[in-house]
Amino acid sequence: MKIRSLLSTILAAVAALGLAACSEEKKPAAAPAAAPAPAKPEPLKIGFVYVGPVGDAGWTFAHDLGRKAIEARFGDRIKTTYVEKVPEGPDAERVIRDLVAQGNKLVFATSFGFGDSMAKVAKDHPDVFFEHATGFKTAPNLRVYEGRFYEDAYLAGVMAGLMTKTNTLGFVASFPIPEVLRNINAYTLGAQSVNPKVKTKVVWVSAWFDPPKETEAAMSLIDQGADVLLQNTDSTAVLQAAEKRGKYAFGWDSDMSAVAPKAHLGSCVLNWGVYYEKAVGEVLAKTWKTEETKWGIKEGVNDFVKIPEFVPAEVKKKVEEAKAFLVANPGAVFRGPITDNTGKVVLQKDQVADDKWKGEVNFYVKGVEGKVPSGK
Q1: To the nearest 10°, the Cα dihedral for 244, 245, 249, 253?
Q2: If we measure between CA atoms, which residue out of 352, 333, 277 comes closest to residue 149?
Q3: Please, which contacts does 73-79 make with residues 24 or more away whose CB atoms are closer than 8 Å?
Q4: pLDDT for the residue numbered 202
Q5: Are 156 and 256 in the same domain?
Q6: Cβ(143)–Cβ(108) under 8 Å?
Q7: What domain range is 277 assigned to?
Q8: Which of 242, 274, 275, 298 is 20 to 30 Å from 131 at the Cα level?
Q9: Is residue 20 part of a domain?
């Protein structure tokens, strides 16, 4: 009996130990400690240098729309800032250096006259990417971009050549650099393509944004018989002056149709967001490389828009046909034979101008009156 009792006790103890072990096995394992969340990458800081005020309704306004487009596209992956009304010269270098000191790793300078300053600062900061609008100097961390603005000017010329009653067009010009001279010549060539009798008068204002000077120049051109005006300046002054005098004109760089609806024949607009999305995307993806980008109507950087209802259908059709040709043949505005206004052949028959030719334009084509001023 004692042995049986002892066995019973031992068996009970073993059973109890087994139950305890099973109980331990059924307990859920402790959850592993949560891994720390990965640190959020710092946003790419991007600085813009503007030659005019963001409210100019023209060139700087268009660039700032492009800045806002990349903010919408990339969200908190980027952080942008801008400095407006920066004079071309020593002040530009100071502003660019300050943007770099603030930690901006991508800097856009948006006017031709910023070129020397960009080249100097880029050399001193090889870890920063620099982009210069309408420039020509490049470096391992500096590249250039521009639109084919002359395509829009050509389309405005087609419209002007068909709408003029005096066969005299006017152009308010900023500085005698190739970019501006190309636009004057393209405007004239477009008009001559539909109206060989056209001639163009030019008034220079030596400024990108100076509404009083632009107004004065527009009035002078109208007094000389011009009844359709285009400009390579940044305000709405020329369009407003044309409406005041009962003449026609165009918007430049942005849609200006609401400013002077009775005078407005169309707007030569810029969509810089197309290029800025490309540039920012390449920096973020670490695929950025030095190159020259020259985009136009085909790529969506520039366009001719808002032809009003009062323009005859046959005129609209001619403009649309010319636009379709430029989409199919980018940059083909300058196709020979082209002569300057002294009779010299500057482009041979059937020759299409290359970028080198376009970058060295220092003349007026046949039909533009006067001489090109020397220097800027």
Answers
A1: -40
A2: 333
A3: 73/273, 73/277, 73/280, 74/280, 74/281, 74/284, 76/43, 77/41, 77/43, 77/44, 77/284, 78/43, 78/44, 78/45, 78/46, 78/280, 78/284, 79/43, 79/44, 79/45, 79/46
A4: 98
A5: yes
A6: no
A7: 44-147+273-295
A8: 298
A9: no
Asked whether residue 107 falls in the same domain as residue 193, the answer is no
pLDDT given for residue 29 in this prediction: 55
Give the single-character DSSP code of 208.
Answer: S
Instruction: Say what the pTM is.
Output: 0.87
pLDDT of residue 25: 46
Whose tokens are 């020759």? That residue is 351
Return the residue matching tokens 């001559």. 192
Q: Say whether 86 sits in a helix, a strand or coil.
A: coil
Residues 258 and 116 placed together within one structural domain of the fold: no
The reply to whether 373 falls in a domain is no
Query: Is there a contact between 248 and 267 (Cβ–Cβ < 8 Å)?
Result: no
Q: How many residues does the chain have?
A: 376
Domain count of the fold of the chain: 2
- The pLDDT assigned to 159 comes to 98
Q: What is the pLDDT of residue 28?
A: 53
pLDDT for position 73: 98
Q: What is the dihedral of CA 165, 171, 172, 173, to 10 degrees?
A: 180
Buried/exposed 79-97: b ≥16 CB within 10 Å, e otherwise: ebebebebebeeebbebbb
Indicate whether 242 and 328 sit together in one domain.
Answer: yes
Strand partners, 109: 49, 132
Together in a domain, 242 and 345: yes
In whole angstroms, what is the distance from residue 137 CA to residue 120 CA? Answer: 11
Cα gap 271→253, rounded to integer Å: 9
Low-confidence ranges of the chain (pLDDT < 50): 1-7, 9-27
